[in-house]
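Q: I have 227 residues here and want to know how they pack in 3D. Can you give me a structure?
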Amino acid sequence: MMNLIQPLDEKQISEVNMKKILVTEDDEKMRNGLVEILKEQGYYVDSAQNGKIGLEMIKKTDYDIVLSDLIMPVMGGMELLRNIKQIKPATSVIFITGFGTIENAVEAIKIGASEYITKPFKIDEVESKIKKVLAEKEFIITPDLIDSNIIKAISNPIRKNVVKALSESGKLRFTDMKNMLKIDDPTKLSFHLRILKEHFLIEQDSEKTYILTSSGKKLLESLKKMD
């Protein structure tokens, strides 16, 4: 079945100044539903029924976000992600995944995906994730303020929010942080905390409570200058 929605050219997109989203999803009902809802939210939206078609569209248009199913025929989400990071590294990828493939989604985040959403999902969650990723893309870091490790560490809004939460509270236990940030999936929070620890931005004291390191405090000062 041919994709009926033709992407706008760059001149047209520039004129309407819309954020551009590509939905790649093999379930036609879900794909069309996402397209309709996101258009109502004011986004320009293209769609494709698999990663191969989506990749060809990505080569022609600079999308802000690719919202993709993880498991698709012809070309799945992981292969699509690897291709995107090679040809359009500035394009953010949000995966839609079933409960049984959460581990694959976490692995995808490690190699460059921005977020993942588990099925069944509420459209509010999709809209929230898209807004967070777009906000992160607009968060421009000045190189002379912070080093490359810190730039990498705030590549996801959750990690930035962890730093801000610790700056406000001084120290937090895992459960308190999860509740404060309203994160339902403890595995996701654990992953982001590990990234921050690997970049020496947070640490745990003798009571296993999370606190900011000196580098983390430096990040906080940079974030304040950007706000």
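Q: Anything worth noting?
A: The two ends are 46 Å apart (CA to CA). DSSP finds eleven helices and seven strands in the chain.
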